[in-house]
């Protein structure tokens, strides 16, 4: 089967390519023209089979491209040295990467739907709440430094940058541990 690039979603183009390929293969097999109904039906089935094979090949290539993109996404998001969080307007965690979960010292999937504000140390709650409301009112990237912690236990000092997506109104946060760079 020839591997020609083309838009296999275009039915007319696909049909022409399949007919051309069938004609070439029949030319090698026999030189007799198709004349009766049975031969016409066989011809139609063969063309349709070739069309399906071409579409299947294109789907296979699209699948491989999607797999490569997924691996790249996993490397960039899940394994990033930065903590990434996606919060809803109330502060509930919608998504978090592995580094973000490590910063909060919790398992990643147990954090989903937990409120991020519960992991802010008491001394930083006002600063974070001001930062969080400013993100939603300014619609610009904002930043702050806060202390993560809960149950009167401080975890670490972090630098947080956030922005709100226009379409879903979710807050995207990147969080970096700066404890070893600051004095408390």
Automatic annotation (TrEMBL):
Coiled coil spans: 38-76
Coiled coil as UniProt keyword: yes
SUPFAM superfamilies (UniProt xref): PYP-like sensor domain (PAS domain)
Matching InterPro entries: PAS-like_dom_sf
Keywords: Coiled coil
Stretches for region Disordered: 1-35
Gene3D superfamilies hit by this protein: PAS domain
Record-given protein name: PAS domain S-box-containing protein
Taxonomic lineage: Bacteria, Pseudomonadati, Bacteroidota, Bacteroidia, Marinilabiliales
């Amino acid at each position: 089967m020839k591997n020609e690039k083309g838009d296999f979603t275009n039915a007319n183009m696909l049909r022409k390519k399949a007919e051309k390929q069938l004609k070439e293969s029949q030319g090698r097999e026999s030189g007799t023209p198709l004349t009766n109904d049975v031969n016409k039906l066989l011809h139609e089935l063969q063309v349709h089979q070739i069309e399906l094979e071409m579409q299947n090949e294109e789907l296979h290539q699209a699948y491989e491209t999607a797999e490569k993109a997924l691996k790249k996404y996993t490397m960039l998001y899940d394994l990033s040295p930065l903590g990434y969080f996606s919060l809803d307007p109330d502060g509930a965690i919608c998504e978090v990467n592995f580094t973000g979960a490590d910063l909060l010292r919790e398992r990643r999937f147990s954090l989903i739907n937990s409120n991020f504000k519960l992991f802010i140390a008491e001394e930083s709650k006002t600063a974070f709440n001001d930062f969080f409301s400013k993100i939603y009112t300014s619609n610009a990237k904002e930043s702050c430094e806060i202390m993560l912690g809960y149950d009167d236990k401080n975890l670490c000092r972090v630098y947080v940058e956030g922005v709100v997506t226009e379409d879903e109104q979710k807050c995207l946060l990147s969080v970096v541990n700066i404890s070893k760079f600051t004095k408390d």
